[in-house]
Write a structure and sequence with these properties.
Layout lengths: L3 H16 L2 H25 L6 H6 L2 E4 L5 E5 L14 H11 L11 H16 L12 H10 L6 H17 L2 H11 L9 H9 L8 H9 L13 H18 L4 H8 L18 H15 L3 H6 L3 E4 L3 H11 L16 E7 L6 E5 L12 H4 L9 H11 L7 E4 L20 E4 H6 L3 H11 L1 H10 L24 H12 L3 E3 L4 E5 L5 E3 L6 E3 L3 H16 L14 E8 L8 E10 L4 E7 L9 E2 L7 H11 L13 H11 L1 H36 L2
Parallel strand pairs: 1-3
Antiparallel strand pairs: 1-2, 3-9, 4-5, 4-14, 6-7, 8-11, 9-10, 12-13, 13-14, 13-15
Helix pairs in contact: 2-7, 4-10, 4-11, 6-7, 6-8, 10-11, 11-12, 15-23, 17-19, 17-20, 17-22, 19-20
GO molecular function: penicillin binding; peptidoglycan glycosyltransferase activity; serine-type D-Ala-D-Ala carboxypeptidase activity
InterPro entries: Beta-lactam/transpept-like (IPR012338), Glyco_trans_51 (IPR001264), Glycosyltr_51/Transpeptidase (IPR050396), Lysozyme-like_dom_sf (IPR023346), PBP_transglycosylase (IPR036950), PCN-bd_Tpept (IPR001460)
Keywords: Carboxypeptidase, Cell membrane, Cell shape, Cell wall biogenesis/degradation, Glycosyltransferase, Hydrolase, Membrane, Multifunctional enzyme, Peptidoglycan synthesis, Protease, Transferase, Transmembrane, Transmembrane helix
Length: 691
């Protein structure tokens, strides 16, 4: 029995509904929502650059070097693209019979298919399932899903798929759409496109596929991994026979032909050869990363949309570095458990910041995996001395031959006491000698003299990542909280090679899309004036001594002048006083800066380098430079080794030295007299007006 309260509510609701014509408003609301959704989706489809789709699918993304020559290609979901005229009609009929019988009569979508999809959506919502169980996708919808969208089954994605499909149908002919679909479909075993699938499974071209072979190819579209004839021959045969039956239903073949074909065996033949043109893996990885992080492209777009990416790559440099990293004799021995000593090198053009070569590790490369040249954060050791100590000292009025104290000294309330290698001290030495031989005590003494803040600000100008916790005397020896990468160090040293100007390191010069539109016309980088050209020149004169007579002498490339610095860091808690965690060499000419690092990924008592001399990385660096420098312009330095300059200055100016010494003596006496007079005045003032 219906409650009287319900009857009264029903009558009242009816009167309100009729009075305010809520049915009409409800219809208007639904139509409005549909209109807004349609407008948004239409706008998105119109701005998706559908007109570029065919060019994107046809063309491969190529990487170009600094000379605009092809260096290699990138592709993930892309095989060998062939026109529809070179795809057997048998394949076309098999695919249409199986996937979309009304392909030639619809405009990108199927009304009955949409009806099924809506029914499944309502069903899943009632069952609290937040997805659509497929259904209703035409060939055009499958094409745009693979080309533009994700595989997630949501209402939003299905709506986008519908409007994108309509736009594709507006732009392209049915032949173009079928061609793009067949060339962009996945067929298992890492094979994309019907041409490569024909070679992989039947050892022939797409143009020569027979009806049974075409049925196998079409059958794989539903489940490429489950129906490929190499891994699952019986399942592939059963699926093929289903496709043959569907072809008979649509009239593509007769029923008798279908029956005859169904009784034949599936014979495979694999003649497919994977075309690996990812020739310079660490460099190409870095290019992809930069295109994503700086220019907003996605990995899928970069790999599959047929871009031309112009870079600073020098193929001579890159190939030499890669070859060197495969030669075990250039590296220290493996650890006892076989773990390899790792390494990384990067070569930079100091004039524009362009990275010309990079290798991020030894052993097997992983696509977009760990790149030590750009990603490690290790203490730079003594390679920081020119940045944190000697450059700001020169800017503060010191000279390359200024005398520095070389004594074991404690500083501050925490009694920080830097030590020289082997605990040897000479009392004093000229700056150029302290730098060339990487002596610790003079560097710390000098930083203390000029002030830690000057050193800290100098390191920041060189672009290294420092924090306020690094603002202490340990900065002179590379004691950074975060550490640096070889690429960051190479960028910092590029300022010495480029008259004091540092440019952000980068890989990409220009990007052009598949239709020829320039989407990146100039690199998104900036330059920084780190020091004057005069200071850079004086610093170079001192750093030439590193390779001529200092810690890098054994790493000097034969027949070439190179400036730079070596560095090493201690391995803590290993129980070995000579254990080393990191070894560095960074060297430069006016044409190239090369930074090289060696060490274990994880340093401990059984995984560390030996001794602190900094020579372990020498054979690798020496070989790299000897193979790179012949390809440079071989521009000469505009200065000489500081030791040579000092020796010439001493031998050619003895007379003026005596005059200057005499003047200095007289000046000292005058200064002393003035000081005494001042003390007398102070005493008189105190006695007269004191407390």
């Amino acid at each position: 029995m219906v409650s009287p309260y319900y009857q009264r509510f029903k009558k009242r609701l009816g009167r309100v509904w009729h009075r305010y014509q809520l049915t009409r408003w409800f219809i208007v609301l639904i139509l409005g929502l549909i209109f807004v959704l349609s407008a948004v989706m239409t706008f998105e489809a119109k701005t998706a650059n559908v007109g570029n789709l065919k060019a994107q699918l046809e063309k491969t993304t190529y990487i170009y070097d600094k000379n605009n020559s092809k260096a290699g290609s990138l592709y993930a979901q892309k095989g060998t693209y062939v026109p529809l005229s070179k795809i057997s009609p048998n394949v076309q009929k098999a695919v249409i019979s199986t996937e979309d019988r009304n392909f030639y009569h619809e405009h990108g979508f199927s009304v009955s298919g949409i009806g099924r999809a809506v029914f499944l959506l309502i069903k899943n919502k009632l069952l609290n399932r937040d997805y659509i169980s497929g259904g209703g996708s035409t060939l055009t919808q499958q094409l745009v899903k693979n080309a533009y969208l994700t595989q997630e089954q949501t209402f939003t994605r299905k709506a986008k798929e519908l409007f994108y499909s309509i736009e594709v149908e507006n732009v392209y002919s049915k032949s173009d759409i079928l061609s793009m679909y067949l060339n962009n479909a996945y067929f298992g075993n890492g094979v994309w496109g019907v041409q490569d699938a024909a070679e992989k499974y039947f050892g022939t071209s797409a143009a020569n596929l027979t009806v049974p072979q075409a049925a196998v190819i079409a059958g794989m579209l539903t489940s490429p991994s489950g129906y490929n004839p190499i891994d699952h021959p019986e399942a592939a045969k059963q699926r093929r026979n289903v496709v043959l039956g569907l072809m008979a239903e649509t009239g593509a073949i007769t029923k008798s032909q279908a029956a005859a074909y169904q009784n034949t065996a599936v014979v495979t033949s694999d003649t497919y050869q994977y075309k690996d043109s990812y020739r310079y893996p660490y460099y190409f990885d870095a290019v992809i990363n930069e295109a994503i992080s700086k220019y907003g492209l996605t990995e899928s777009e970069i790999m599959n949309h047929g871009y031309k990416i112009y870079t600073y790559l020098d193929q001579n440099y890159q190939s030499k570095l890669q070859s060197n990293f495969k030669n075990s004799y250039l590296f220290p021995s493996n650890a006892a458990d076989g773990t390899k000593v790792q390494a990384a090198s990067v070569a930079v053009n100091p004039n524009n910041g362009g990275v010309m070569a990079v290798v991020g590790g030894r052993g097997k490369h992983v696509f977009r995996g760990y790149n030590r040249a750009t990603q490690i954060k290790r203490q730079p050791g003594s390679t920081i001395k020119p940045l944190a100590v000697y450059t700001p000292a020169i800017e503060s009025g010191y000279f390359y031959d200024s005398e520095l104290q070389d004594k074991k000294t404690s500083y501050g309330t925490n009694h920080y006491t830097p030590k020289n290698y082997n605990n040897v001290y000479s009392g004093k030495m000229p700056m150029y000698q302290a730098l060339a031989n990487s002596v610790n005590a003079p560097a710390v003494w000098l930083l203390n003299k000029i002030g830690v803040n000057k050193g800290y600000e100098s390191v920041k100008k060189f672009g290294l990542p420092v924090t306020k916790s690094d603002k202490n005397l340990a900065l002179a020896l590379g004691g950074l909280k975060e550490g640096v990468s070889p690429q960051e160090l190479a960028e910092a040293y590029s300022a010495f090679a480029n008259d004091g100007t540092r440019t952000d390191t980068h890989y990409i010069r220009k990007i052009v899309d598949a239709s020829g539109n320039v989407i990146v016309s100039s690199p998104d980088v900036s330059s920084h004036q780190v020091m004057s050209a005069k200071v850079a020149k004086e610093m170079t004169s001192m750093m030439l001594g590193v390779f001529n007579s200092g810690t890098g002498a054994t790493a000097k490339p034969y027949g070439y002048s190179v400036a730079g610095k070596t560095g090493s860091t201690e391995a803590d808690a290993t129980g070995d006083g000579d254990a080393t965690r990191d070894k560095w060499i960074v060297g430069y000419t006016p044409d190239v800066v090369l930074a090289t690092w060696e060490g274990f990924d994880n340093t401990n008592s059984s995984h560390h380098l030996e001794n602190l001399s900094g020579t372990g990385v020498g054979p690798l660096f020496k070989t790299e430079m000897e193979e790179i420098l012949p390809y440079t312009k071989q521009t000469s330095f505009n200065t000489k080794d500081a030791a040579t300059l000092a020796k010439a200055s001493q031998s050619n100016s003895s007379f003026w030295d005596n005059v200057q010494n005499g003047a200095s003596s007289v000046g000292d006496q005058i200064e002393q007299g003035a000081s005494n007079a001042a003390d007398t005045v102070k005493k008189w003032w105190s006695d007269t007006f004191g407390n």
